[in-house]
Amino acid sequence: MEIFRSLGIEDEVRAAGAPARTVSRTAWYTSFDGPTELHGRQIAARDAWGGGSYAEEYAAMSPSSYTMLAQIRLEPILRRAAEERPEADIRFDSPVTAVAQDEDGVSITVGPTADGTVRHIRATYVIGADGGRFIADELGIPMSGESDLVDMVSAHFSADLGGVVPDNGCLINWFVNPDLGGSIGSGYLYHLGPWDEQGRSAEWLFACGFGPDDPERFDEEEMKRRIVRSLGVEGLDATVHSISHWYINAVVADRFRSGRCFLVGDAAHRVPPWGALGLNTGIQDAHNLAWKIAAALRSPELASLLETYETERRPIATTVAENSLHNFTNHGGLVDKAIGLDPAAPASTGWEMFADLWSESGSGLERRRALADAIEFMDHEFHAHGVECGFAYPRGAIAGDGPERALPVDPLVYRPTSAPGHHVPHVWLHGGAGRVSTLDLADGGRLALVVAPEGADGWREAVASAVASDVAPLAALVDVVVVGDDRLADPEGEWERLREVGPRGAVLVRPDTFVAWRSMDMPEDPGRELELALEVVLAADLQLVDATTGAGVS
Ligand SMILES: Cc1cc2nc3c(=O)[nH]c(=O)nc-3n(C[C@H](O)[C@H](O)[C@H](O)COP(=O)(O)OP(=O)(O)OC[C@H]3O[C@@H](n4cnc5c(N)ncnc54)[C@H](O)[C@@H]3O)c2cc1C
Q: What CA–CA distance (Å, rounded) separates 229 from 236?
């Protein structure tokens, strides 16, 4: 949403998304209804996705709120926004079938299309964003990790579930039914909108796991029966719009770049959706790469920035893949285990475990305690602020400040810091035209050197001197932005509190809102210091090769 903000489509995406009050919780049920008193029971519920008790924490950390919008509704917005750019030429029915590169560029073959046309395109750079269908193989880049763990089948359907769904504030309802094989087999249900005044949705998505060799997994009628059984609602009138199969993978490309070609999104990493970070991570890849390609196209001297794309994004993708895989295994595993469900045991034993869970027995109390722990542990999936927003680039197009430039150690906590490699802390400032976030300061492919009025003159001179030096192409992209004067006020002194640098210091923010460098105070020769920092930003990722062993030396 922060990236959509920078593209000017945040409001449109939020307006199309689920009303905030319908996505603040998640809950587990045996079913919504059924023949015994153990059916239709809520097993647990908790706040999630920056809603409920987390609302204040998330609102303080970002100008943008968590938003839930189905990808089929997001993509038309992105398409329209792209088509409004005069420089864009967007084509459909254009399958790329071959990519060959040389020192000067890339030759791409498109087609044959439906009408048999084959076209050839010559490009300076190529961004492979094909969801993992073609480009990585074509470039000879292998994927590493765990693949094809479970065949998940999703049904997008319309149904009136108004009197059936117990809580319209829940985005995802998870079913744990011993008759259906516990968590993965029982599946989950979430709403896709459109929503009425009461937050009731007209369309839904139901997904559950099938054995990879189950012949019924492609059968629409069987999927309808699954929905009826999981929800426990006989005679449900559902119109299925589509059924899709997706495999649970946690794989990351061994390289994100081959010469002039780059992998982004699912072409570079495919992660289980438990944690909801797949597309988020993909959009962040594109955001990280776009300003670097734009800079390289503007000045060939800036092409070294492109080396930092893989250095910065691959470790993040690996962390997201690992976390999402843990979320997937823990999600069903911990809840089922806490209740005492064993997939190998008969279903009747599973129902006995549920009966005990809600009894006054000592073992029931133990089960409830274990369940509460399991649900709390799911902070890793539903409240993982550190993974979502606190990740940092330890190496790449950044300079200076050592120890804190590490990946986050706590996946649950986002601690704002202006240390290089981190997402710049969000603070609301007051500008002439209204509220401005510190995330809005570096705009249009330019870097912002954020300073206080006390250091403004010194840093302006520093930029002027860097523009006259060897790092001129990068220095020319730097704007000095003064925070704390009448034009951009910090009325609560919050930026002063969070910026971590002194009143004569400076924080250099990249166009993708990550900190490139900071100076804690005004150095003796600020021009020289800035110049050195920009040199490191441009060359930080240079790999020197040991002449004897051939091994890379950073
Ligand atoms: C059930 C489920 C729930 C999810 N929930 C979330 C969530 O809540 N949050 C989140 O962030 N992520 C989520 N994800 C992940 C998200 O869907 C993916 O990460 C995302 O779709 C990847 O986007 P992409 O553009 O990289 O690839 P895709 O969406 O796969 O798009 C690739 C495009 O490339 C085109 N293409 C393919 N081959 C070629 C070719 N040779 N030439 C030209 N074009 C080609 C395709 O037609 C397609 O249009 C979820 C995934 C699933 C399965």
A: 10
